Every structure is written in C-alpha cells, then in structure tokens.
Amino acid sequence: MKYLLVAGARPNFMKIAPIHRAFLTRQNGRSTADLLLVHTGQHYSRNMSDDFFRDLGIPEPDINLEVGSGSHAEQTARVMMAFEPACLEHHPDWVIVVGDVNSTVACAITAKKLGIRVAHVEAGLRSRDMSMPEEINRLCTDAISDLLFTTDTTADENLRNEGVAAEKIHFVGNTMIDTLLRHINRARESAPLNGHRQGSFGVLTLHRPGNVDSRPVLAGILGAVGRLAERLPILFPAHPRTVKNLEAFGLLDFVLSNPNLHLMEPLSYLPFIGLVAQARLVVTDSGGVQEETTVLGVPCLTMRPNTERPITCQIGTNVLVGTNPDKICEAAFRVLDGHLRKGCVPEKWDGHAAERIVDILLNQV
Q: Across the strands, what pairs with 3?
C-alpha cells in the first residue's frame, strides 16, 4: 500500500507530524518508502513553513507543489493542477488530508476523481457558518472521503446526521494535541517572554478575514484589547495579513503607541505554543488555539460568533465572545478577577491519536 500524506498550511503541519512518526514507528524504524509527504506550498514563507518542519522533526517533503498564494479559487485550482500529476506518477492507494484549508479539499477532489481512496483527519467539525471558506472545505471533503477520522464524538454525530455510513467514521482523538504533548517542554523553553513572568501577560492572535478586513471591526477589537492592556500586558504575534491591514486602515500607530501592547513578528510553532502555555489569558480568532488552550488549561476568549470546535466551550477553557468590544472586555476582566472557567481535557486527547489512525489505515485492504 502506498500513501500520500498532504500538508498545505501552518495548521496542517502540527497534524501531519505525529502521523508521519506513527507510520515510521509501525514499520520499526524502517524506511517510509510507502509513505510520501506532499507539501502543497499554500503557506510558503519561512515562518509559515520551513521553521515548522524543523521544529516538529518533519523531514523534507518528498513532493513540493509550490503553489503559493492567490484567491481561494486560484489557489484551489493550482493545487488540483499540480497534485494530479503527482498522483498519476506515484499511484497511491490512499491520499491522507488533514484539516480544512484549500489544499485539503483540492487534493481530496483530485484523488477521488482519479479513483484513489481518501482519508480525512479532523473530519466532522462544523461551525454551521457558510460564510467561512473552511466550513465549505470541511463539508466537501467529508462528503467524498472513504475514511473519516474525528477528534470528538460531536463530530461523529455531525457526520451520521449528514448520512455518512457508520463504518467510515472513526473517533481517534486529536493529532494536533499529539504534537502539543510531545513538544510542550521544549516549547516552554523557547518562548519569547520579553521579560515577562509566567502568568503575567496575555496573548493576542488575530487573522480571520471577518475580523481584520473590516476597519470598524478591527478598530473595535483593538479598542477592547487596548482597555485590557491597561490591566495586563498583551503580546501580539501578528499575522502578515493583519499587519498589512493595520497599515492600510491607519491603525498601526495605535498599536505601536500602546506601551502594554507588544507587536511581535510571526512565531514558529515551538515559541508560539510556549508563549500560549505560560499566558494568563489568550484572546484569539483561531481554531486550533481553542484546542491547545483547552489542553493547557489556559483561559481562551474566541472572537467569533461560532466555533467548529464546540467541545472546547462545553468542557474546555474556551468562551465565545464575538467581536463586540464591551463583551470582549467583560469576559477578559472576569478572568483577571479570578472567575476562571474550569475546563477538562476531552476524551482521547491523550497523545495517541496518530497511532490509532495509522493502525486503522494499515488494516485497510
């Protein structure tokens, strides 16, 4: 059996690393000649790609499609056009895709049209928000996948309700948490604390188009963060898209002039997760950070109206606060005043999800 394991963007790298390692372990350290690693190049800058591979111990990709950036349609089409020749050359039995980025759906569709079986890792997550490109990618990928590996039982229920056959669905846990648990000690040591002590600062991440492409929304969020920074220094590793819009909207000076709001370059995986692990509070619009903070026990405020990871709100440390500045501040001040959400770790988020996935794949005929 031959497998193509696909990664395209930053969130994918943390999910594929343990799967690649589990394949190698199951072969007792022998060559992974039957597993080829494909990097689509959807994220191609050093901080977005090379550093993550180095930090996570992922080998150089066997295939790099180097598609680069573009609109959603352009990027999806380029991945499909580049991935098809790779499939025709290597004749895989399975294509394994992870997450919900454009590369995920593009490679799944391409493989399926060539008669290649598709396995989707992190299947079944739903926000019910069709304005999110990721939601469309999730729905399309799950609809055509032959194996669907889920992170929690809510995802199983979503898939069953959509008519997916029960034998295709496998609740395995969360491979991103596999990576977190494996590297957390190294991550803490590499965190750029900028002179702050553990628990004496907050972390802000901000990148979703709905939050950073609208000046009124972005200005409102920054106003709330500015109020929060009066009580707690905020470290802000800024996404390039966000910095570009801060400049375009005339908001960059507001950030730079606030002595308690520290704008930082984008961070690779280990420094970033080390920062999050030692924060008093995280304010984010990311999906993966909701899961990481839940496992780390760090209070998380998610600036979105919905989440495809509801388990982080049901039993984790995550609270949806939307983008209303008053609601953001109210929730943040509750945390600072000691009203913490007591969360627990979801079932099977134990560091062994990738092993379960590989065992299932190797048992397919």
A: 35, 94
Which amino acid is located at 160 in the chain? R
Query: Is 207 annotated as catalytic?
Result: yes
One-letter amino acid at 297 equals: G
Question: What pLDDT, in 10s, does the model give residues 196-242?
Answer: 999 999 999 999 999 999 999 999 999 999 999 999 999 999 988 89
pTM over 0.90: yes
Q: With 0-12 CB in 10 A as exposed, 13-18 as middle and 19+ as buried, what is 126? A: buried
Provide the sign of the torsion angle of the four alpha carbons 111, 115, 120, 124, taken in this order: positive
3-state SS, one letter per residue, for the chain: CCEEEEECCHHHHHHHHHHHHHHHHHCCCCCCCCEEEEECCCCCCCCCCHHHHHHHCCCCCCEECCCCCCCHHHHHHHHHHHHHHHHHHHCCCEEEEECCCHHHHHHHHHHHHCCCEEEEEEECCCCCCCCCHHHHHHHHHHHHCCEEEECCHHHHHHHHHCCCCHHHEEECCCHHHHHHHHHHHHHHHHCCCCCCCCCCCEEECCCCHHHHCCHHHHHHHHHHHHHHHCCCCEEEECCHHHHHHHHHCCCHHHHHCCCCEEEECCCCHHHHHHHHHCCCEEEECCCHHHHHHHHHCCCEEECCCCCCCCHHHHCCCEEECCCCHHHHHHHHHHHHCCCCCCCCCCCCCCCCHHHHHHHHHHCCC
Indicate which residue of 90, 170, 207, 352 is catalytic: 207
Rounded Cα–Cα distance for residues 325 and 330 (Å): 9
